[in-house]
Amino acid sequence: MKRQAKVSAILWILLGAAVWVVAEPIASLRPSNYVNDFAGVLDAPTQARLNALCQQVDQKAQAQIAVVTVKSVDGQDVVSYAVALYQKWGIGAKGKDRGVLILLATQDHKYWTTVGYGLEPILPDGKVGGFGREMVPLLRGGDDAGAVTLMTARVASVIAQDAGVTLDNQPRLAAPRQQPESGGLGVVVILIIVFIVIAILRVIFIGFAGGGGGFRGGSGFWSGLLWFILLNSMGGGRGYGGGGSGGGFGGGGFGGGGDGGGFGGFGGGSTGGGGAGGSW
After folding, report:
1. What is the architecture, at CATH level 2, of domain 11-176+241-279?
2. Which tops the pLDDT comparison, 188 or 60?
């Protein structure tokens, strides 16, 4: 009897764990609008505002943004899940492939943004990854709505700017944070000091022995140093530092922008798997 009781207890624990992490198989997901909150983490006003924004992008810039929240990615890695869902829904017009899928898996603590073929030139992986790192502090703070709004607004802004159109009632966002380059500059300063000390020592110990010609090699040294500084300054700038610390969502500044209606379905677009994401 005791053994049966233990087995029953273990089964109940396993059953409870299975119920706690509810996965959404892709086959069961159907889009009802641009924003599809299957995880139930977005309030109605946020959904309405984002639907209105995505509708503008669709109508004015001929690009489609799908925002999807799920509780879990059904045991898959988030990249494969996002790409499979993108292909199933066909985000963006067929042949133009101007679509973006913003996916948030709340219980997995993972996010991924997949970009269609037609938007990859203006939304490369590095830029999309930077936007994602901006929203990590919001996700860690439990502000799923703010994080999704930030990512959607960033993507919509890039698409609108490229298309030469203006979107109404966009949320107020801080400028994308860039990774400070002070670390690279410090290395350059240290190397300059080292080279100067070496040059002075050459003058002291070699210059006297060789007369006036002891410092002739200095031109090669200074030339090499200048080239080093130039190359370092050209290659040192990486946009978007990892994670950020202040978030970039101004909150509250996102006006109504219509009733969020007008969704006519997605258009059969495709993706090659481009995009970026992470976890929190």
Report:
1. Roll (3.10)
2. 60
